Amino acid sequence: MKRLLLATLFVAGLSAGSAAPALAQISLFQDTGLMQAVNDGDVAKVKGALLRGENPNQADIHGKTALLAAVDRSSPAMAGLLLDSGANVNRADKAGNTPLLAAAESGNPDLIELLLKKGAKVDMENREGMTPLMVAARAGRADVVERLLKAGAKVDRSDFTGRTALNWAQESRNARVGTLLRQAGAR
User: Fold this and answer.
1) Planar angle of CA 34, 135, 147, nearest 5 degrees
2) Nearest-angstrom CA–CA distance, 181 and 183
3) In the predicted model, is pLDDT for residue 24 greater than 50?
4) Is there a domain that residue 15 lies in?
5) How far apart are CA 187 and CA 166, in angstroms?
6) For the residues 29-47, what does the mean pLDDT come to?
7) How far is CA 135 from the centre of its chain?
8) Is residue 112 domain-shared with residue 142, that is, in the same domain?
9) Which of 10, 35, 148, 167 lies in disulfide reach of 163, CB 3.0 to 4.6 Å?
10) Residues 106 and 137 placed together within one structural domain of the fold
11) For every residue of the chain, which 3-state class applies, written as one string?
């Protein structure tokens, strides 16, 4: 008799418990207002979300922060709003990519200036050992390489495959980038 009562209570508990999540309709993967506004490229909505007190350092499930998303959208206006609201200029995603590394790859000079001015570390590397200088050299972005060198980027660091920024410049066949790196002391 006790076993039947326990089994009945157990089954009743399971069925009651299984209905609750369906009624709640919770989504753990939905973007917040701020992340959605950044992904949409809507500066006014980004400003509104920040004024409502949303955290400027929030990230999606891949660790991509709102600032990194703004840099990916090549938007100095959104990046500036986020930084002025306290976004961490050096916070990386799960792959170790920082906003400066993303800006170095895209080559937006306004974003690079903004990030450096706000304290971006010029030699932070991602999980592959790539620095912003290496990424800019690989992309053939001479103007970015020049700016990163002026900011103190180290020319002879190597990634996890042993390549330096000069090696990446040679692989991308960009003579101007190679010349800049050699003038800065790359070997």
Assistant:
1) 90
2) 5
3) no
4) no
5) 7
6) 86
7) 14
8) no
9) 167
10) no
11) CHHHHHHHHHHHHHHHHHHHHHHHCCCCCCCCHHHHHHHHCCHHHHHHHHHCCCCCCCECCCCCEHHHHHHHCCCHHHHHHHHHCCCCCCCCCCCCCCHHHHHHHHCCHHHHHHHHHCCCCCCCCCCCCCCHHHHHHHHCCHHHHHHHHHCCCCCCCCCCCCCCHHHHHHHCCCHHHHHHHHHCCCC
Which CATH number fits the domain that encloses residue 83?
1.25.40.20
Tokens coding 136:
């800019």
Are 69 and 37 a contacting pair, CB within 8 Å?
no
For residue 108, report the phi and psi dihedrals to the nearest 5 degrees. -75, 110
Write down which residue in 105, 121, 137 finishes a domain: 121
Place of tokens 């570390």: 121
Q: What is the pLDDT of residues 100-136, one digit of tens each?
A: 999 999 999 999 999 999 999 999 999 999 999 999 9
Q: Is the pLDDT of residue 177 over 70?
A: yes
Expressed as residue numbers, the domain containing 68 is 33-121
Residue 52: CB atoms within 10 Å = 9
Query: Are residues 96 and 169 located together in one domain of the fold?
Result: no
> Is 131 in contact with 100 (CB distance < 8 Å)?
no
Which position has the token pair 């200029």? 89
Q: How many domains does the chain have?
A: 2
| Band of residue 10 on the pLDDT scale cut at 50, 70, 90 | very low
